[in-house]
Amino acid sequence: MTGRVRLATLGALLLCQPLSAQVPVSPQPPQAPSMPVAPGEPRTLPPNFNPAPPQQPTEPEGPFPQPDPSVQLPLREDLRPIDHPTVTIRQQSESWQLWAGRSLMRDFGPNRVAAEEALRTVRELRPTEWATVGAARPVVDYALTNGKPATWAPNPKWSVPVDLKSVRAMNVRGAWVVQDDANIILNFGTDRPGAEQAAAVARKYGFNRVGMVGFPTPAMAYFYAAPVLAQQNKGPDPTATLARVAQENQLTRTGVAVPGVGFVGERLVIDSRKVEVRKDRGEFVLAHGPDVLARFGHSEWAARDAQKVVRDCRFTEFCTVSPGATFFLVNGAAPTRVPFSAQGTKFDPQQVKARPFDGRWGVFEGGGRMLFPAATKEEAEHLVRVVHAYQFDQICQVGLSPRASLKFLAKTGR
What we know:
By secondary structure, the protein is α+β, with helices and mostly antiparallel strands. The protein is 20% helix and 33% strand. It folds into two domains: 62-228 and 242-247, no CATH class; 253-410, no CATH class.
């Protein structure tokens, strides 16, 4: 009898608790239906599959920023028609891809979570046209609905505000970025036209936010318009300069610092543990996120060897001065460890000179063999400065074919 009284008392107490104290049961997200797939066929999620619980976008309260149709874009817009209800993701080989009908929108590699998040974003934007900005690599996308920005905003997990009054393209440490007075927003590396196009697109359409897919490393960025919130004028921020310096120090894509020259080429910060081998356009490549470091054609074993070299040497930066001259750094310094598995060609850095040949330019060891071709005299002279600055004395190659290999400058540490 005592046990029954205690249970009854406990039940009464629970019933007396307010509703806010009761723990709600979260609904489980829908699961992708199981579909039979023939061997070698890409896995495709059906168009009506949402990777998260379906949420109908609603008209948000508050005014949207006003587009400025008078803004002239420096480049022609690459607008492509899109039927957003048919957008889906597929698994091709080891990559998860975002498709609109028969058109590939973005390849996310093995990152299925990012692909699903991108799918949800496209459906929330409900576009009729889609565009991408970035020449060598896609940096930022944007959607239009019947030629105008959407009048509803998506709900990204991570976004960055854009001040339309001060947004502009700037060169910061050898990299072209899109920034405003408060933040560095997008990094285009050496692609100046792309940075200028992106800044103009934001002003023209009133895109005052950049949404990010993937965290902490974004796999995709996209412009969108969000309601303007009333803000109080608090005056200048005394910490703004320190914040800008911190942002510049954290840039993962800058120019290569060369004494006496400034910044040349491009420097990419890498995590050697995340360098992977995958297929891209039918050939094996060595990649770090969306960036391809080297191509190996059909030779998977050469790509695997290159991956092992990068991981064993623990390289932290990949630098490109010209298409034929690349090198790695370890915390800003030339690595002194040359991998045994790489074929090495030594040269005397003190004898390296830039000179013309057959109407072109190149970097030669004295008056003898050519080490690197160069497009211009300036590029050849920059290569000589790089060799002297880092005291490189060897060209390493992983892979038998010059056209399908990883080639990089190294220092023997003598």
